[in-house]
Amino acid sequence: MSTAKKKKQPASKTSKTVKNIVGHIMRILVTMMLICVITGCIVVTAMVIYVMNFMEVDNGVNLDNINQSMTTMLYAEDPDEGLVEIYRMSGEKRRIEVDLSDIPQHVQDAFIATEDKRFMDHEGVDWYRTISVSIKAILQGGSQGGSTITQQLVKNATNDDEVTPIRKLREIFRALELERNYTKAEILESYLNIIFLGGRNYGVEAASQYYFGCHVWELTVPQAASLAGMTRSPNNRRPDLYPEKNKERRDYSLECMRDQGMITQEEYEQYIQEPVVTVDRSGNDDDNVDAGDTGVKEGISSYFVDAVIEDVLDDLMEKYGWSRDYAYDRLKNGGYRIYTTENIALQTTLEQKFADWHTFSSKQIKPDADGNIPEAAFVLMDYDGHILALVGGKGEKTESRAFNRATMAKRPPGSSMKPLAVYAPAVEYDLINWSTVLVDGPATKIDGKDWPKNYENKYYGDTTIVEAVRKSRNTIPVKLMQQLTPERSVEFLQKKFGITTLVTSGKYNDYGLSLSIGSMTDGLYLTELTAAYAPFGNGGNYYTPITYTRIEDANGNIILDNQPKKTRAVSEDTASIMNRLLYEVVNGEGGTGREARLSSKIPVIGKTGTTQDYNDLTFVGMTPYYIGGVWTGYDTPKSLPYQSIYDPDTIWKNVMEDIHKGLENKQFELSSNIVQLEYCTESGLLKSSSCPHTAVGYYKSNAKPGVCDIVHGGASDGDEEGGDSGNSTPSGPSSEGSGAASGPMDAPVIG
To answer: CATH class for domain 65-71+89-297?
Structure first.
């Protein structure tokens, strides 16, 4: 059998297919590599371009100028405790900045352990954590966090909430830049002052006060962990609303602190057993807050605080040209420090007295048919223009920025205007002295009737100045006004005593003789009336009344400096004589203010005022310590219930007895140029041997009266009992405070 030669077999189809597939894959891989390289180049180029553009613009974060809402605080001096916070204001955000030195280490540790355990080691970005979180996000979907404390600070400081890779890239660059420009301590301090912690609370101090009723430096370790555990979902983990959720996250924060050696295992086991306990805020909303044991109230403000706020708003508007709305917004959110003139103890005493109806009446007054009761106001000052305490209404205050009768109500002062409008300028110009004798009789006629009338509706003939002041005669100041002229009096009131409410134009104005007895077109503020009396107790100087001394911004820069402006109102000699005349009102026989005398024997001087129909009662009283002005009346003017309402000097005494409790007796200082001399009570001249009735008066040494040379017969000292004055102003034009009742302005003769 023959064997045939074998033929060469072709390559298998399988092998050829494998080669083709491998070649195709290689081509795909090469193509993908080329695409990746090109894409990478594009991405890198884009990143370089972005970074270059980023660097060209100032995109860094300045921790000194972070535009964050901050709570404004008001302070007052306490004799025992020094500077004390009395009130705070906040807008949508409640934030109180504190230094890192005031934040305990365990509070710092709680946030670092929970939020960024490598904070002290990284340079703004925790790359390991960032990459890890990014991979998890790709594989599992969603967002896993991963921002460092520095990055969180950048986000909060810039309000850059865009959810894009570009935003994240900006955040990274900013965080790196921030760490280059600031220390870890500075970054941590800013973070702890900015972090959102539920409700309206931003920063650890505001949150500590709101949730736990204490300052941040008083927080326990579990309380610190409660706050640190809130950061990822603040409103859903509020310890006051969701204590169980908060405890779960709090315990996690404690676990982190244990794992990082910040607390021991024993401490950890102890702390997790503690319940979450917060301040009971039942009945309060988030806008009406007491800061617990801190003693600081946010919510219903006192009348004094209301006055401060109004003064600050006015001054901000004037200095910076702001609208009222914008000024108020800045006040709530600017983090200002307002240093007030309030004396905390005196304000507390005044509020307590005004909450007690016994201060004002012999029996509790029932509301009238319209539901109204007589109201009252009080202003307490020192002699340098500082308002120390004030109350603008009786009873418990129920709302902030309520109508403040001490600072907002313009009411006619009645006879308390006489020393300011007439007697002081007349003494200053040497038109009168202590014992000048004038005729107590009509000064003019209105509608054919004698005007003015005295309180008792009769006239007393020859009357000395001291008698006229003591018994508040009406005719004498009107006749003096005729000599001074209303124009001169108005100028004196405005320039010397700081009265701003006088109407000097239009049909109804204050250029009338009725101004001398306290009838005015609009009236005046109790603060102005009280401040105007200061020269009679301090040697003749007027100080603009103030409720605050300065305002600082969050960085300590003074934005408003508000020191009292001092002017010479009257000479020291005039001030001393007026002081003694006002002493007679309270201490002299038949004086209208005799109920103001204090049981402590501390000297009191002052002047009462009663308007027409018994609508408004005022008294401005002074001791060597304080000036106090009181007003009482209805908000809508009408006659007071005479038999029940105390006279204003009695109300004043009821308040000032407590104010002066424990104070040493001291005297007013008088000018060395004032001499005490005996005078004839009939002629007003210095006594002679023929004068049957004499008294001691006070005179300028260079303006003494002559010696009496009258041959006296029967004498009368004109000592009839009198009363207060202004309610005798007639009806008709004069009751509106117009010049129609002024009579002859150029009358040359007094009496």
So the answer is: mainly alpha
